[in-house]
Amino acid sequence: MFGILAPHLKEFTDDLSDEIKYQKIKHGVKDVKEFIEKLANRGKVDPLSNDFAKYLDDNDKLKHLRYEFCIPKARDVVTDGVEALSPEDDSVYFCGNSLGLMPRTAKDLVNQELDVWASSGVVGHFKHKHNRPWVSIEDNVIEKMAEIVGAKPIEIAVMNTLTSNLHLLMASFYTPTTKKNRKKILIEPMAFPSDLYAVESQIKFHGLDPAKELIKLQPAEGESTVPLDNILKIIEKEGHTISLVLFSGVHYYTGQFFKIKKITEAAQKKGCIVGFDLSHAAGNVVLKLHKWGVDFAAWCSYKYLNSGPGGIAGIFLHEKHAHDFNRPRFAGWWGSDRGSRFQMDQQFKPIPGAGGFQVSNPSVLNMVSLMASLELFSKTSMVHLRAKSILLTGYLEYLLDKQLNGLGFKIISPRDPHQRGCQLSLKFLDKNIRDKVSRELMSYGIVIDERDDTIRVAPTPMYNNFSEVFKFVRALKIIMSDLGIKK
């Protein structure tokens, strides 16, 4: 599928680097609606027909990945009091932005570790029949995780959970100074509540007042997203007072893909440390953390990285900080030098890079569950996934505009496909209508996510297809008509 996203519909050749492919995708598709109609014309099919969805699926070079996942049946995703219309059909799972589906190999890998535990006990830490000794279990995921976020292996650690990791990183990188009056933290509008709790508590930890030291960007009246220019203006104006800029990569509510490179450059120019919560970005969009010079980042892995509920998380620490051992940190034995870790000499010798921020030995079961998903990512690339994602959300947007034309809702995600991830957020004008729509979608076996007056629809390129997008829009059109909502 990534091939047809090149300019003028030319196929990519195998010898092109991912960087070149990425740039072709980035600059080759400006008007998705026009592009979809060109594709329909090429396939000689009506772009509003189910035949066009099938045409896109037939030409999807990533369609084989869908069969690597367990797709829930419609009967198993309905809630109490809802009857599935086609209970034996596969559900339409558009909720990877909340919890990704299970890779088929995850169960086998977890069972292998249970078998090693049963047969070997503590010996499994050092002798492992599958060549995954628990003492170094993280070695099985570091390089693959680094590829997904555009980092070097020394810059990656897989450990803990998201908010715990944010606290560990801020303990080192949020160092407010009263003397220079650089104490503030800048966050995006409507930051995810856990991030907000974390930064407010960090400010309080330093004896400061969040009401004075936390800058929360707000969108303009009637808008849901914040233009890059507004972000850069506040950094230029307040940068001398800001200690830390902490944004999400992709906003959980609107799906806005923030310009990480430009935000980082502007903030660092003013002397700020720059960190990102990439929970909705890792495995969703193309990231180049090392190249962009981001100071640190953290992310969960149970959304687009499909590691399972409460799965183990990841961190990034730029190589430029790898040997900076003078920063304050909360230390634990798993961040200490491997060669002396078990000597129990009570001398903390931090591992250079992100590994030095580890505190405890990781959950083996969580680690191999993540490994199952990363093995699938290694069968493709983020460039290819992103290309399909742009077309998936573009097709969804096209059908919604053509078939429903804002019927009782508006799309609050950015209309530019390069400024959003694989999510469209539909804000309903009446919350009661949203409640009814969500309930009725469930009867069709369609799984979406709700936030207040909004439903978040996230067709994920790893396992969703274009026919499912068509099915969603058709079901929504029927539901809105049944509710008496007309143009």
Characterization of the model:
This protein has 487 residues and is α/β, with parallel strands linked by helices. The protein folds into two domains: 2-90 and 381-482, Alpha-Beta Complex (Aspartate Aminotransferase, domain 1), CATH 3.90.1150.10; 111-377, Aspartate Aminotransferase, domain 2 (3-Layer(aba) Sandwich), CATH 3.40.640. Helices cover 38% and strands 10% of the residues. The protein has helices at 18-28, 32-43, 50-58, 74-77, 104-120, 142-149, 162-173, 193-205, 210-213, 228-238, 260-269, 289-292, 338-341, 364-377, 382-404, 431-443, 466-482, and strands at 92-93, 156-158, 184-187, 214-216, 242-248, 273-277, 296-299, 314-317, 409-411, 424-428, 446-447, 449-451, 454-457. The longest helix has 23 residues, at 382-404. The protein is globular and about 70 Å long. Its EC number is 3.7.1.3. InterPro entries: Kynureninase, PyrdxlP-dep_Trfase, PyrdxlP-dep_Trfase_major, PyrdxlP-dep_Trfase_small. Its cofactor is pyridoxal 5'-phosphate.
Task: Write the SSE topology.
Blueprint: H1 18-28, H2 32-43, H3 50-58, H4 74-77, E1 92-93, H5 104-120, H6 142-149, E2 156-158, H7 162-173, E3 184-187, H8 193-205, H9 210-213, E4 214-216, H10 228-238, E5 242-248, H11 260-269, E6 273-277, H12 289-292, E7 296-299, E8 314-317, H13 338-341, H14 364-377, H15 382-404, E9 409-411, E10 424-428, H16 431-443, E11 446-447, E12 449-451, E13 454-457, H17 466-482
Parallel strand pairs: 1-11, 3-4, 3-5, 5-6, 6-7
Antiparallel strand pairs: 2-8, 7-8, 9-10, 10-13, 12-13
